[in-house]
Design a protein that fits this description.
The chain has 79 residues and is an all-alpha fold. The chain has one domain. It contains three helices and no strands. The protein is elongated. The N and C termini lie far apart (56 Å). It comes from Duganella callida.
């Protein structure tokens, strides 16, 4: 367990305390939710970048053919 000390404006600290937001369990939940939110936003931004490329996704058959080609190449270099 880690102890954190934070500085807040008095009015914010008062309001948060009145709402029970400064309890360790509540702060942990708030932080976990924010971590999940940021991770999700990061994944969505990656998805947006991929969509912006204009490339269409490979079909299952195309993926399988790429796998076969790599395996043939590896087999040829070993022989």
């Amino acid at each position: 367990m880690i102890t954190l000390q934070i500085s807040l404006p008095e009015d914010l600290a008062r309001d948060a305390k009145e709402m029970g937001l400064l309890k360790p369990d509540t702060i942990s939940e708030i932080l976990r939710n924010e971590i999940r939110k940021q991770a999700c936003n990061h994944l969505l931004s990656i998805a947006d970048e991929l969509a912006a490329t204009g490339d269409k996704p490979m079909t299952a058959e195309e993926v399988q053919e790429e796998i076969r080609a790599v395996r043939r190449e590896q087999h040829a270099t070993r022989s």
